[in-house]
Amino acid sequence: MRDQGFVRIAGVDEAGRGALAGPMLAAAVILPEGFDLEGIKDSKQLSPAQRDAAYERIMAGATVSIAKAEPAVIDSRGLHRCNIALLRRAVAALDPLPDYALTDGFPVPRMPCPSLAIKKGDAVAATVAAASIIAKVTRDRIMVKLHRRYPEFGFDQHKGYGTAEHMETIDRLGPTQVHRLSFAGVGQAALPGLGPASAVSIPEASEPSADSRERMIQP
């Protein structure tokens, strides 16, 4: 792509899409030309220690932005719409804007720059792999902090995903304020105006509102 004249090439990826608790994050990364790609690969292929080391290198040497949607926003707006909006906003938050953006898996409409969806992008494009690392490490650290608030749920171990232990704890104690009540098997409590929330289908709006999300940006 640089041979075609694109200089600032961003990769964007999300973490926490399928989790039952905690936020969903999207990260966008522009790696400078000549960046050492040793250890930069799909975050799922790295150990926690390798991810942490790669995270520090990326944050120190690349342009990074992060967008976050809390569980209540995901419940009210819809998972996929939140996902798309976060990916787009993470790219839009990069300063300067990229010349081109690569997304993992599916296209993102209304990007602020030309973009291309790549199947298994985190495995074949370094910028997308870097974004997957930033999103994963940032979200994991958030879940460790949530573990201190809800130690009985073990968020530091399963990071909010639907393990057998996590499901058993939800069944025994009920969901917390950081659970996604619209997800099947989670919403034993009632969502306002909707009755029992188990397996509720939430109508999707266009995207999260500005006052209901939090975005973190780091140069």
What does this structure look like?
This protein is an alpha/beta fold and 219 residues long. It has a domain at 2-144: Nucleotidyltransferase, domain 5 (2-Layer Sandwich), CATH 3.30.420. It is built from seven helices and eight strands; from the N terminus they run E-E-H-E-H-H-E-E-H-H-H-H-E-E-E. It has a six-stranded mixed beta sheet, sandwiched between helices. Helix 1 packs across helix 5. It is globular and about 55 Å long. The two termini are 23 Å apart. Residues 189-219 have low confidence and may be disordered.
What is the structure about, briefly put?
This protein is α/β, with parallel strands linked by helices and 219 residues long. The chain has helices at residues 48-61, 71-77, 79-92, 121-124, 126-149, 155-158, 164-173, and strands at 9-15, 24-30, 63-69, 100-104, 115-118, 190-191, 195-196, 214-218.
